[in-house]
Amino acid sequence: SSLMVLGFIVAAEVWDKLTQTKNTAQTSRAGRKGFNLESHTVVTEDDYVLTYHRLSKKGSGGPDLSRWPIFLQHPLGASSAAWLVPSTEQLAYVLVESGYDVWLGNSRGSRYSIGHKTLNNNGKEYWDFSLHEMAVFDLSAGVDYILKQYSEQMDKLLFVGHSHGAAQALILSTIRPHYQAKLSGVLALAPAVYLTGLSNTSTTDQTTARETIDT
């Protein structure tokens, strides 16, 4: 349910604040490792303001435009920093070294995507979303934004998602099937798809989430 996801997001935000200094330092460290990390603003249909990161190699001639751009999407409770720490052996760096144009997404409510055109992120209305909105609005906006950077040079990208990040691609492809034509492939790492093994503790989770938001 939407409120259960809200509970996860609230818990993730608390944890993220505790590790804010570490995450920020790790992300900015990309520059000291010989890479450029650009910030791009992506606005969704429902006015959430997201920050995407584009990773490139310093001093290189740029990505190989004959290859698909690659979109990496983090799991629930994480951010684009998940693809950048702890070392340059992480997937994002390896792909850049191989000549790919690498984009790192950030879902609404995560460390780098906490904005909205009209809503305050301290209010309940801002947090009234679920995985559905992350997929249908956030991911679609991200795909369109990345492909727009290529004009007509590229009409598809390769998507790599971890856990709920992978689930977003599957939801988007189902709800808006025309986006299937914009994905050259979907690599799902531990996709959060089959949830039948989970016990239902929604009553407790919903109460906790509601109390957290109301304080």
From TrEMBL:
<dbReference type="Pfam" id="PF12146">
    <property type="entry name" value="Hydrolase_4"/>
</dbReference>
<protein>
    <recommendedName>
        <fullName>AB hydrolase-1 domain-containing protein</fullName>
    </recommendedName>
</protein>
<dbReference type="InterPro" id="IPR022742">
    <property type="entry name" value="Hydrolase_4"/>
</dbReference>
<dbReference type="InterPro" id="IPR029058">
    <property type="entry name" value="AB_hydrolase_fold"/>
</dbReference>
<feature type="domain" description="Partial AB-hydrolase lipase">
    <location>
        <begin position="32"/>
        <end position="85"/>
    </location>
</feature>
<dbReference type="Pfam" id="PF04083">
    <property type="entry name" value="Abhydro_lipase"/>
</dbReference>
<feature type="domain" description="Serine aminopeptidase S33">
    <location>
        <begin position="88"/>
        <end position="196"/>
    </location>
</feature>
<dbReference type="GO" id="GO:0006629">
    <property type="term" value="P:lipid metabolic process"/>
</dbReference>
<dbReference type="InterPro" id="IPR006693">
    <property type="entry name" value="AB_hydrolase_lipase"/>
</dbReference>
